[in-house]
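> forwarded from #structure-qc
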């Protein structure tokens, strides 16, 4: 049995479509849907009010993704938890197939599982990632992983077609299936990550305790990509940068953490500007520099490991 946790923030009609796709799954697989609403103002939660097997938790403010997931997980009772983005939709077998895979005796050490995520054109997205290192984060920050021959240098496994089942470092948080006892053993998501890197951190801590993460290619789900974060592009970049630095200060040697700070606040703004100008994206330049301004203002708190900083 799986309990599904969906964190909603102004997801509009996507939330209703996502919940509907869950409710058509077999009841002996999908136990209940827990929707945690992070202070939405678009009425998206009202459309699912009263739906059978759906529990709604209205937070009244935006606590961030990690904190909201933890609140939802606290209401769960099934042996498995699925954290599902509201911009996803499930298909037949999206839950039953990975659940059966994890229930096999030989997969008793599989703690986390993801499935193939397909886009609007029915193309399989390359969503799995490697654990962050200073080198990989630097390659991404400077855009080196966009260059021919260096596409495998960054975090995202864009150099692999995602056509077969295999062990990976991390599956995308849009569909993140985890054993509930493991989630509780790790004390859930680290709430210092307001959004982004929270599933990376959890996957890394799971690996440290001996659990495997599997990308399961024999089941699919739809994922629009970007979710509701497209609504606030400047804030999205700010949160991503901030979470990256928090991850570095949590898991890297101190000297690497400080090198990462230097790359992020000195070199990356220049690199992003160059890449935007090459695309003639002047608006992107303004958005990037606005995000870096927010980051520079919050650096003192970030270095103290205080993740939930008001932008």
């Amino acid at each position: 049995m799986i309990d599904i946790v969906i964190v909603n923030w102004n997801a509009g009609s996507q939330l209703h479509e996502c919940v509907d796709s869950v409710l058509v799954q077999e009841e002996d697989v999908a136990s209940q849907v827990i929707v945690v609403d992070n202070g939405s103002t678009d009425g998206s939660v009202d459309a699912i009010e009263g739906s059978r097997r759906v529990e709604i938790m209205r937070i009244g403010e935006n606590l961030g993704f990690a904190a909201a997931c933890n609140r939802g997980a606290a209401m769960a009772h099934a042996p498995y938890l699925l954290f599902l983005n509201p911009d996803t939709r499930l298909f037949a077998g999206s839950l039953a197939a990975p659940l059966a895979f994890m229930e096999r005796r030989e997969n008793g050490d599989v703690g986390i599982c993801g499935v193939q995520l397909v886009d609007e054109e029915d193309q399989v997205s390359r969503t799995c990632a490697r654990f962050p290192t200073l080198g990989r984060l630097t390659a991404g920050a400077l855009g080196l992983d966009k260059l021919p021959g260096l596409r495998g240098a960054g975090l995202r496994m864009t150099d692999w077609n995602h056509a077969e089942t295999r062990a990976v470092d991390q599956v995308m948080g849009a569909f993140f299936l985890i054993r509930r006892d493991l989630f509780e053993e790790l004390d859930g998501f680290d709430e210092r990550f307001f959004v982004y890197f929270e599933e990376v951190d959890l996957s890394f801590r799971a690996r440290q305790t001996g659990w495997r993460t599997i990308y399961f290619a024999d089941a699919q789900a739809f994922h629009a990509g970007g979710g509701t974060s497209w609504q606030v592009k400047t804030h999205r970049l700010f949160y991503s940068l901030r979470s990256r630095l928090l991850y570095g200060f949590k898991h890297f040697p101190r000297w690497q953490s400080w090198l990462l700070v230097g790359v992020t606040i000195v070199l990356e703004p220049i690199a992003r500007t160059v890449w935007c100008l090459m695309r003639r994206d002047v608006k992107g330049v303004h958005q990037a520099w606005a995000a870096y301004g927010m980051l520079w203002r919050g650096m003192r708190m970030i270095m103290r490991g205080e993740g939930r900083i008001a932008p």
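QC bot note: Residues 69 and 196 are 13 Å apart (CA to CA). The chain has ten helices and nine strands.
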